[in-house]
Specification:
single chain; 7 strands; 6 helices; alpha/beta; about 45% helix; five-stranded mixed beta sheet; about 20% strand; Transcription Regulator spoIIAA; elongated; two-stranded antiparallel sheet
Length: about 230
């Protein structure tokens, strides 16, 4: 494939419908699961009824009974339902990865290197994709404001790469982010970005290495400093 020479202002707008595999119930369940995971990882969580604050204090016998009831409830939870939910989430992630991969190939064939996908259901928000070719391989940066969408993209990344490979596209790297770091420093054209990557290492070596390794030596008594 030829080097990407398009400008980042040319954004291809498209829509991706995942409603068949992304039911509202599944998305709500996934969202709740992520929220619970974030809450459990956050220090300073709200005190539980067993933490001894005011009227919520329970005596040891009551606490033991409550723990036993919770254990029984957890043991009786339908494992099959949890397994089915996990399978559905993975299926959604793979469907998303495959669909995004196909759309990327379609836009590259049209000469588009900056793609914005509006997703359905609307709960998933949108995905913005910036692409460029580097030494015949594809670099892609995916931006998704919704944490749930980023999670699905990560889970479906293997399927996305497989889809691209099957169509003859080699992948160099793929990154998923929320777009916050892209707000700083402006943007350059993909061609300029590729050029800066290819020449940046040589420029760095030529400018920084002598400054670090070359000692400053004074020659003679005339005070001239010579760099070697």
């Amino acid at each position: 494939p030829k080097e990407n020479v398009s400008t980042p202002s040319a954004v291809a707008l498209s829509e991706l419908d995942l409603s068949e595999v992304a039911s509202p119930e599944l998305l709500e369940s996934l969202s709740q699961s992520m929220a619970e995971g974030a809450a459990s990882a956050t220090p300073g969580a709200a005190p539980t009824p067993l933490s001894g604050h005011g009227s919520h204090r329970l005596d040891p016998a009551a606490a033991a009974r409550q723990d036993a009831q919770n254990a029984d409830a957890n043991a009786s939870a339908p494992d099959a339902a949890l397994a089915q939910r996990s399978e559905n989430v993975q299926n959604l992630a793979e469907k998303m990865g495959q669909a995004v991969g196909q759309r990327i190939l379609s836009e590259i064939e049209k000469g588009q290197w900056h793609l914005k996908l509006s997703l359905r259901p609307a709960t998933l928000g949108h995905i913005e994709v910036e692409m460029r070719m580097r030494s015949g391989e594809l670099d892609a940066v995916f931006t998704a404001p919704q944490a749930m969408t980023r999670e699905l993209l990560q889970d479906g990344m293997a399927k996305l790469k497989e889809t691209l490979n099957q169509m003859g596209m080699d992948v160099a790297s793929m990154q998923v982010g929320d777009g916050q770091t892209r707000q700083r420093g402006g943007e350059s054209t993909p061609g300029q970005m590729s050029k800066s990557i290819n020449t940046g290492v040589n420029a760095s070596e030529s400018t920084t290495t002598p400054a670090v390794n070359a000692p400053r030596m004074k020659m003679g008594q005339d005070g001239w400093d010579v760099l070697v």
